[in-house]
Write a structure and sequence with these properties.
The complex is a heterodimer of chains A (322) and B (173).
Chain A (H helix, E strand, L loop, with lengths): L23 H15 L16 E6 L5 H12 L3 E6 L11 H10 L4 E6 L4 H8 L5 E7 L5 H15 L6 E5 L6 H12 L4 E5 L15 E3 L2 H4 L5 E4 L5 H4 L6 H8 L3 H4 L7 E3 L12 H4 L6 H27 L1
Parallel strand pairs in A: 1-2, 1-3, 3-4, 5-6, 5-8, 6-7, 8-9
Chain B lengths: L1 E3 L1 H16 L5 E5 L2 H12 L7 E3 L8 H4 L18 E9 L3 H11 L6 E9 L11 E5 L6 E7 L5 E7 L9
Parallel strand pairs in B: 2-3, 2-4, 4-5, 5-6
Antiparallel strand pairs in B: 1-8, 7-8
Amino acid sequence: MSAGAQLGADGGLNHLLTIEGLPRPLLENILDTAARFLSVGSREVKSVPLLRGRSVFNLFFENSTRTRTTFEIAAKRLSADVYNLNIAASSTSKGESLLDTIDNLTAMQADCFVVRHSQGGAPYLIARHVAPHVHVINAGDGRHAHPTQALLDLYTIRHYKGDFERLSVAIVGDILHSRVARSDLHALRAMGVRDLRAVGPLTLLPPGLEHLGVQVHTRLEEGIRDADVIIMLRLQNERMRGALLPSAQEYFRNYGLTAAALRHARPDCIVMHPGPMNRGVEIDSAVADGPSSVILPQVSFGIAVRMAVLSMAVSSQRTAAA
Amino acid sequence: MIELDAEAIYRELAARVRVHLAGRLVRFVGVHTGGVWLAERLRADLGIAGEVGILDVSFYRDDFDRSGLAREGRPSRIPFEVEGSDILLVDDVLNTGRTVRAAMNELFDYGRPARVELAVLIDRGGRQLPIHASLVGRTLEVPEDVSVELSRDEFQRLHLTLENLAGREEGPR
């Protein structure tokens, strides 16, 4: 399935599988729609009746609390019926195949699947398989993509910094294994960021970043110098067990974002993190809780962005069918 | 295409609103976009204090299934307490009543108003719901396939155009 297959006949969003290939006007339309939903969250009644009677199934084949919860809140604020399935604990452990599970859920009148899977490409497999009226949103697949995280990162940057073209953005940490980094790089390129940097130890930097127009830095202070935006990535503990890194302490000494290191960035630099954070590994508490941190606003914006994606996916199909 | 004298119709509406609301403390809420222009203009011309509220009803429409989510819009914003308020809802053209229903549904998600009345520049008939405007600039009998559009020029002057859509292919909303 090509990236274009996530778009409906009218050019709108039918599925959201990856950021790659989405045109800038569509990304901007998603952010604008999210801005309209953001104000709903500050009202006394926090829901709108847009997806009333629709069923959204959260299919999490891999654990996640934050992403699953924000998708659930987003769907509920759109008045959809939400079903959370802990797949690992149910049918697949009894030997049912992924697509049999999907067929069964479709027979239960699902309108939308929000999918997280440890295998890259699983949401594509599902999107190719489902009936035309069913939509698939990728909530993170393997090392491949995490498009709604990238969209909420774009939203956060636009909210605090405005114009993308003039910004210097540094992504710091385990770029190699990070689906967030991959989606962020595509999203920031699409929005016209010219000064885009990847910072980390060589063992955690994938080859070929230069071809994406990304500057590679192995020293933190150089990588974040005069940056407007720093996106910290979570260092996954399992990486420490391989030969990629010596120890968490050593990683923190070289790549942990401390207040002292942050002084190399611009004074009004914002610090982002997709969560969950490892304090004292990739980020110091003084920074995570400090004035530059926008980590908690990211979570609030994430709900509005997911409301936008869910409502646009469902409405796009209806337009195409009309 | 026919153009009506929107400014003259507006002045008639403003005169009726002035008489109707005399002595009452009323907050204005405009329906995006034409209703907001009218509400802001009425507020200024009638010397009413406070900002007008703005409703973008696209998240409340009942035709979401058929027409999808409107691409354009601005966030709804009610800069006052809806609970217990006397509210004048303002829209440009009243037709099926579905927009007004959506606007009232949204308004009630902000609180329970003491009273809601409706003022429209044009009532073109064709109601599909039991909705009635207390204040109308002008009533027109217009066939279903004729569009009535309010626009505003660079000098903030209002324009009303009637256009026959028969034979034209229906585009996206």
